[in-house]
Amino acid sequence: MARTPGTMAATGASISAADALYARMADAYLEDGALPGLIEDLRHQRFMDGVDIVRFIERETKKFKVSPTLDRCEFALARTLIDKHFAMGNGAAILVSLERDTSEWAERTARELRERSPLSFDVSLQLVDRTKFSTMAETLRRDLDLTRTTFGRGDVVKGIRARIVDKDNQPAWKIARSEDVSAADVERMFESAWTPASHPLRLLKD
């Protein structure tokens, strides 16, 4: 499970409801048609606190029996491969590992990653690692800093031009290959434009 967020952050791939449940990004799943009934039930209940609400929803979602089959989600099926390849560290090492693997999943994932911004690939991996040891306040301040540097120094504008504006799918990334991304390149993306005392989110409690 530890490497799943890194995989998602690096590839930017869409995930299914089953994948979200498996990765613990969601607690329950309902088909669209069942949602109005759940809302109506909530209106007629009295709850002592938020815990009671969560427990009620858990019971109701089990009653509807519409949860996806977890053993058929892609993350579950590829778990061994994800843990193996995304434990390599940086983007270049992950790509080397993936491209030595002849499985369909590894080949597809390597192909997708080669299309992404090499710098953003490494920044995404680093962001996931840093978040593991951060408070919520630290995470939010870091995210604001990174949003600023991503537009100012990163490849987001180039990606938008290639994918959305011109639609030529030919982004001219600032660093063309993952093999050329250095630790210093990644570290610069996490630099803040503000001092701790002037940061817009300085009042958040750690």
Main traits of this protein?
206 residues, mainly alpha, 2 domains, 57% helix, 0% strand
Description:
With 206 residues, the chain is mainly α. The chain has 2 domains: 17-72, no CATH class; 117-206, no CATH class. 57% of the residues lie in helices and 0% in strands. The chain has helices spanning 4-11, 17-22, 35-43, 50-64, 74-77, 79-85, 91-99, 104-115, 118-131, 136-152, 156-165, 183-189. Helix 1 packs antiparallel against helix 9 (118-131) and helix 9 crosses helix 12 (183-189).
**Average pLDDT, all residues:** 88
Q: Spell out the helices and strands N to C.
A: HHHHHHHHHHHH
> What percent of residues are in strands?
under 5%
Number of strands: 0
Oligomer: single chain
Structural class: mainly alpha
Number of domains: 2
Q: What's the N-to-C terminus distance?
A: 26 Å
* Low-confidence region ranges: none
Per the principal axes of the C-alpha atoms, what is the gross shape?
A: globular
Largest sheet: number of strands, sense, barrel closure? none
Cα Rg: 21 Å
In helices, the fraction of residues equals: 55-70%
Topology:
Layout: H1 4-11, H2 17-22, H3 35-43, H4 50-64, H5 74-77, H6 79-85, H7 91-99, H8 104-115, H9 118-131, H10 136-152, H11 156-165, H12 183-189
